Amino acid sequence: MYLCIMKRNRDTDNEVSQLYTLISGGESQTLDFKFAITDSKKIAKSLSAFANTDGGSLLIGVKDNGVIAGTDGDEEYYMIETAAQIYCRPEVRFSAHLINVGEKNVLKIDIPKGKSRPYCAKDNNDKWLAYVRVKDENVCADRIIFQSWKNQNSSKSLAIKYRRHQDFVMKYLEEKNKISVQEVSKYLELKRYEAENVLISLMTASVIEPIFDFKPQIFYVLKNNL
User: Fold this and answer.
1) Which residues have a Cβ under 8 Å from the Cβ of 210 and sit 6 or more positions away?
2) Of 49, 58, 74, 198, which is least packed with CB atoms within 10 Å of its CB?
């Protein structure tokens, strides 16, 4: 079990100034505002998304518009601890700091990028799902992303054999820049599951990566193109 202690140090003017600067930038891929935490399962999704992507911070006691509403901190801290330890698998590590701003407190939760992806969160149907942070949203990872992470985190060799299907995808990406699983299935006349496996093999080897700018579809691009 990973134990995190919430810091309650006296805050300097510089720390408060840094907090205001952080808030002024708005929510992003690495920052999320929460007015309050009322459900450990719901916040587990955010923990999963940050751990699976680039890490990030939760500011609790801050409204969506950036106004500081304040929080006591204790109850929210324990709900986040419950989310990290019980509703995330594997457990998500975090650090906590209660920042005093005038007569109000903001609870800052920092989640580092995880080393054991995929980090999954338990939903209301008791399913374990992995999420990624895209801009200011938490997006459910598809099978391609999820399985690629599992493969990369295993002790198995990540070497792949470039067969006809993988060769096609590589050449297609060199010309068209992006491809979807639907396109792989169509052009190679494969079932969706088979098309996903082609992309999984390439993503496991860190040759391609997903982009999320074309909702609801996820596209894949050559990794060195970004």
Assistant:
1) 142, 144, 145, 203, 218, 219, 220, 221
2) 74
Q: How many angstroms separate the CA atoms of 110 and 127, rounded?
A: 25
Q: State the Cα–Cα distance between residues 83 and 44, nearest whole angstrom.
A: 5
Separation between Cα atoms, residue 210 and residue 213, nearest integer Å: 10
Element (H, E) at 34: strand 31-34
Look at the pTM and tell me if it is higher than 0.85.
Answer: yes
8 band by pLDDT with thresholds 50, 70 and 90? low
Is the torsion defined by CA of 155, 160, 166, 172 positive or negative? positive
Residue in the block written with tokens 């609870």 = 107
**For residue 185, pLDDT beyond 90:** yes
Structure tokens at 151: 């493969």
Provide the pLDDT confidence category of residue 3 given band limits of 50, 70 and 90.
very low
